[in-house]
Amino acid sequence: MTKKMNILLLPGDGVGPEVCNEADKIIKAVANRFNLNILIEKDLIGGVSIDKNKTPITDEVISKAKSSDAIILGGVGGPKWDNLPSTDKPEKGLLKLRSDLKFFANLRPSICFSETSGASSLKKEIIEGLDLLIVRELTGGIYFGEPREKSTVSAFNTMIYSKDEIRRISEVAFESAMKRNKKLCSVDKANVLEVSELWREVVDETSLKYPEVKLEHMLVDNAAMQLVKDPKQFDVIVSSNLFGDILSDIGSMLTGSIGMLPSASLDQNSKGLYEPVHGTAPDIAGKGVVNPIATILSVAMMFKYTFELKQVSAEIEFAVKQALSNGYATQDIAQSNSKILSTEEMGSLISDYVQ
Ligand code: IPM
Ligand code: MN
């Protein structure tokens, strides 16, 4: 038996509980197969926490998160809570969790599986074979910058980065590039924003430590266009919180379905929060049709980054590929000849393959 792994499951709202059930299944399957000592706890975040505890995340859940090794999250938010002020919205729970636990490094891979490339709105040849990693700064920038204010006549936010914040996310990006194709594109808006000028300077400074990595800077408007035009020109992209948020949504469409994309948010010690890139999809919640693969691949990322069990991670990824190449699909990635499965059926199939 390995040393004990404490995992906190925060299903949240909308389709969150459905995809987390399948993540739970996969964790149990690998625990069984590899004889891992895993303890899973479950708790509330987002709208369901507002309904029960009048806050999107309680201090108790924050401290549970602090004492766990990794967190798997489904999603937060939905129409029911959309009219709350932004300080009380379900999203605030997620932002507080990211910030309080210092999960500053958000890794969002965009990998295009050949079986799902037909589900993208882009031409197959543009995206087939794509393997891109977006490294998004997650605990700074305009999301958290002070001061921020809204009055009846105007409103403002502050986009602020310290050199230290830029340096540590740059290092994660360069390290990631070193393990891949040694190409990094840093995305900013340095033709307009001072904060981007500093960003560029610090990325350049950091690059001196990584002479093997080919570094390029790109303005965010151009990067958005280039991602749609020729995404395979990129290997690793690093950007600030807001730009990374936007670019990673583009990244998701490059793969065929946002339902396939996992993410990891790591602190300095590789403790992590793992979640699908997709949201709570209220329109399909409770129908048993949501694609659980993004969350299942997030579980694979957890074993790789937090627990450093590469084999377990590879095994989960392999099981997913097997399901796809055997022609199984959830409705979001279905082709004309696919065998369509429900959320639960897809989770069970992948967990059978894992075992
Ligand atoms: C994401 C989401 C969140 C973000 C929201 C739900 C606060 O869009 O994880 O990309 O903007 O970071
Ligand atoms: Mn987003």
Q: Explain this structure to me?
A:
This protein is of the alpha/beta class and 355 residues long. 41% of the residues lie in helices and 19% in strands. It folds into two domains: 1-111 and 258-355, Isopropylmalate Dehydrogenase (3-Layer(aba) Sandwich), CATH 3.40.718.10; 131-254, 3-Layer(aba) Sandwich (Isopropylmalate Dehydrogenase), CATH 3.40.718.10. Strands 2-1-3-12-11-4-5-10-8-9 form a ten-stranded mixed sheet, sandwiched between helices. Strands 6-7 form a two-stranded antiparallel ribbon. Helix 1 (16-34) links the parallel strand 1 (5-12) and strand 2. Helix 8 packs parallel to helix 9 and helix 10 (293-305) runs antiparallel to helix 11. Bound molecules: 3-isopropylmalic acid and manganese (II) ion (MN). Residues 77, 91, 94-95, 245 line the site of 3-isopropylmalic acid.
Rounded to an integer in angstroms, the radius of gyration calculated over CA atoms is 20 Å
Give the H and E element order. EHEHHEHEHEEEHEHEHEHEEHHEEH
Percent of residues in helical segments? Answer: 40-55%
Major beta sheet summary: 10 strands, mixed
Number of strands: 14
Q: Which word captures the global form? A: globular
Strand content: 15-25%
Ligand set: 3-isopropylmalic acid, manganese (II) ion
CATH topology of the largest domain: Isopropylmalate Dehydrogenase
Uncertain regions: pLDDT < 50 for 5+ in a row? Answer: none
Spatial arrangement of strands, main beta sheet: 2-1-3-12-11-4-5-10-8-9
Secondary structure elements and their pairing?
Layout: E1 5-12, H1 16-34, E2 38-42, H2 47-53, H3 59-67, E3 70-75, H4 90-100, E4 105-111, H5 124-127, E5 131-137, E6 149-150, E7 155-156, H6 163-179, E8 183-188, H7 194-207, E9 214-219, H8 220-229, E10 236-239, H9 241-253, E11 262-266, E12 272-276, H10 293-305, H11 310-325, E13 328-329, E14 339-340, H12 343-354
Bound molecules: 3-isopropylmalic acid and manganese (II) ion.
